Amino acid sequence: MLDQREMQKGLISVIVPVYNVKPYLSECIASLLNQDYSNLEIILIDDGSTDGSGKIADDAAKKDSRIRVIHQQNLGLSAARNAGLSVMRGEYFTFVDSDDYVGESYCSALLHAIRDTGADLSICDYLKKYDVTGTNSERQAAEEQTSQIEMSAGHGLQASVITMSGHDSIRDTYLSKRHGLSWIACGKMFESSFFRKYGSLFPVGKINEDVSVIYQPLFHAEKVAYVDEVLYYYRIRPDSIMTKPFRMELLEVLQDTRKTVQYYRDHNADDLAVLGANYHLRLALQDYYRVKQNALVDRNGLRNILQMIRADVKEFGKIPGFPFIRKVIFGFTTRFPADIVIKHVMLQ
């Protein structure tokens, strides 16, 4: 767990893991230096970059004393975030990925949302920016799509702050009631003492590690403040995890989504357990479908995945309030896993 060092009042620590992001890092750093709130500690963790990203970080630190750079061997995103957590001094902190960037009021809006409402953490809306390097027509199509998303997300409008309990924030995340609510670590600001009590370090070596950490502080938050404005810009790159072909390692996230369901059950939150179980089973079927389409494993491997899902359906069916019809639908799908049936259930 995190140590008990003294935090500097009003200071916001911005933790930025850096790994081979030379084309994007300067924009990320500039967006942080241009914040309208200046009491920042920007921690750049160079996770063994080989493309010159580390030098960009060092050069930036020479120009602004608010920047601290940590160089370490390549251990992965989780280890880099943990390194930042281990040295941060801020009363509050936030994660920003080094190929992303933020609006100029990102820190101030999230901070005021916490202070004005007494929330334990705050969350803002985000926008996915598609990094297209293809033909002119492909770039134009991506720019038009981004423009439409910006307008629909309320970008540029005066922000409103909505408060909810941590319990309700999890419920609304599962139900997709607010666009900015998600399981990703970025786009959120935590009170450091609160996260120290209810959060944890990120598991090293796992993919989609956010899922295994974020749900606990959300669950224990008495109040969450949601800033209804796009302040975080999440870049989707051609070489990012989001766009790479499916890999068997991605099935690891099912261990975490299963663990969250048990956590809710252990803490007498059966309504969240039901929502989490539905999310987990849909995700498991989606992964089964992707594995099957990519022919990544033999038939025995596919059978093992189905058996795992069947066991989960049986166990989750015991949760009070788990709809009988959902149990029937999921059970039927695992017994007769035709592609058209799986795709229909995935959309429910």
Attribute tags:
348 residues; 48% helix; Spore Coat Polysaccharide Biosynthesis Protein SpsA, Chain A; 13 helices; 9 strands; nine-stranded mixed β-sheet; alpha/beta
Structure summary:
This protein is α/β, with parallel strands linked by helices.
Explain what you see.
With 348 residues, the protein is of the alpha/beta class. The protein has two domains: 8-236, Spore Coat Polysaccharide Biosynthesis Protein SpsA, Chain A (Alpha-Beta Complex), CATH 3.90.550; 248-346. Helix content is 48%, strand content 18%. It contains 13 helices and nine strands. It has helices at residues 22-33, 53-63, 77-87, 106-117, 136-152, 166-174, 192-198, 211-220, 253-266, 270-294, 299-316, 324-335, 339-346, and strands spanning 8-18, 40-47, 67-72, 90-95, 101-102, 121-130, 161-164, 188-191, 224-236. Strands 1, 2, 3, 4, 5, 6, 7, 8 and 9 form a nine-stranded mixed β-sheet that branches. Strand 2, helix 2 and strand 3 (67-72) form a beta-alpha-beta unit. Helix 9 runs antiparallel to helix 10, helix 10 (270-294) packs antiparallel against helix 13 (339-346) and helix 11 runs antiparallel to helix 12 (324-335). The radius of gyration is 21 Å and the shape is globular.
CATH superfamily of the largest domain: Spore Coat Polysaccharide Biosynthesis Protein SpsA, Chain A
Topology order in helix (H) and strand (E) letters: EHEHEHEEHEHEHEHHEHHHHH
Count of the separate structural domains: 2
Largest sheet: 9 strands, mixed
Our estimate of the beta-strand percent is 15-25%
CATH class of the largest domain: Alpha Beta
